[in-house]
Design a protein that fits this description.
elongated, 30% helix, alpha/beta, 2 domains, Rossmann fold, single chain
Length: 321
């Protein structure tokens, strides 16, 4: 038993970034051959995308019931592919898709699973794994006993890089799963909603924004920065923004290069969701706000004065450069 299998997540025919991160991680670890598993149509495009990163083989399950996600059908299919390929390591993304699928596969295979992993390195014939615990206040080093080892990677943490390899060889394993008990019949996507887990820059607002219409300030700042817009939980609960904007331990856990927290006090649940951000900038009129304890840079002031001034200064700088 050797090699690594990456279970890809696709949306509208495109491989989600976390899948590419997992492929790049698998190639970096290089425990034997590297394969990826894709579902649905568009295999050729997927083969080029993952092949460029060094994936040697793409396994495709193109037919029904794999055109729409089904927990039981996908779990049995992945488990069967793992039995056929016999990898030592299986990588998932720690997204809604991966968090639902990986534990089911783990149960079917009776294999160990480390979830929401932020670090993974080769250690001889084994892998050393790091994952956050206690709402991001500590990091746990774990090892998985036995094979295959299942790992779900937190999005936007592992580097992807640019590859120029040939397209991965496509093969279609024979898998029978029977009729699924439940399937996703459709997906609705808000055109204004940006996938926060994949964003490299995020501007988020909290109760300090005072009203939903004031989020226009953040929209303008985000447009200048090329950022996504998020929020704290109370703001989403109040209906000022859609719940898809909610960043935090009970919302979306993010790992951007830049996180700008505007009018957010810094409750522990919110901080847990942004702890892997590379740079945190906090804007708040309370100098004792907890958010300043985790921020790399802090501005104490009235956000209704600071944000427009910051937006204008950034725009002027970008226009001049």
């Amino acid at each position: 038993m050797s090699g690594i299998l990456v279970v890809l997540e696709q949306f509208e025919g495109r491989v989600r970034r976390v899948g590419l991160e997992a492929c790049a991680t698998a190639v970096r670890l290089r425990h034997g051959s590297v394969s990826a598993l894709a579902f649905g149509a568009g295999a050729d495009a997927v083969a080029e995308a993952v092949g460029a990163l060094g994936v040697e083989q793409l396994l495709v399950l193109p037919d029904a019931p794999f055109d729409r996600y089904s927990s039981d059908a996908f779990a049995h299919a992945v488990a069967e592919v793992v039995r056929q390929v016999e990898p030592s390591l299986v990588l998932f993304g720690a997204t809604a898709f991966g968090k639902d699928l990986a534990p089911r596969v783990s149960g079917l295979l009776k294999a160990g699973l480390a979830s929401d992993v932020t670090g993974i390195e080769s250690d001889g014939d084994d892998v050393a794994i790091v994952r956050p615990v206690y709402a991001g206040k500590a990091f746990q080093r774990v090892r998985i006993v036995g094979t295959p080892k299942l790992v779900s990677l937190r999005p936007n943490v592992q580097p992807v890089g640019v590859g120029e390899g040939p397209a991965a060889l496509v093969s279609r394993p024979a898998v029978e799963v029977g009729a699924p008990r439940a399937v996703v019949t459709g997906t609705e996507r808000n055109d204004e909603t940006v996938e926060l887990t994949e964003a490299s820059r995020i501007v988020s607002g909290g109760r300090g924004m005072k009203a939903s219409e004031n989020f226009r300030l953040l929209d303008r700042l985000a447009a200048v920065l090329g950022a996504a817009v998020g929020s704290s939980r109370p703001v989403a609960d109040e209906g000022w923004v859609p719940h898809s904007y909610h960043v935090g331990q009970t919302g979306k856990v993010v790992s951007p290069d830049l996180y700008v927290a505007v009018g957010i006090s810094g409750a522990i649940q919110h901080v847990a969701g942004i702890s892997n951000s590379k740079c945190i900038v906090a804007i708040n009129n309370d100098p004792d706000a907890p958010i300043f304890k985790v921020a790399n840079y802090g501005i104490v002031g009235d956000l209704f004065q600071v944000v427009p001034a910051l937006t204008a200064a950034l725009k002027a700088h970008l226009d001049a450069s």
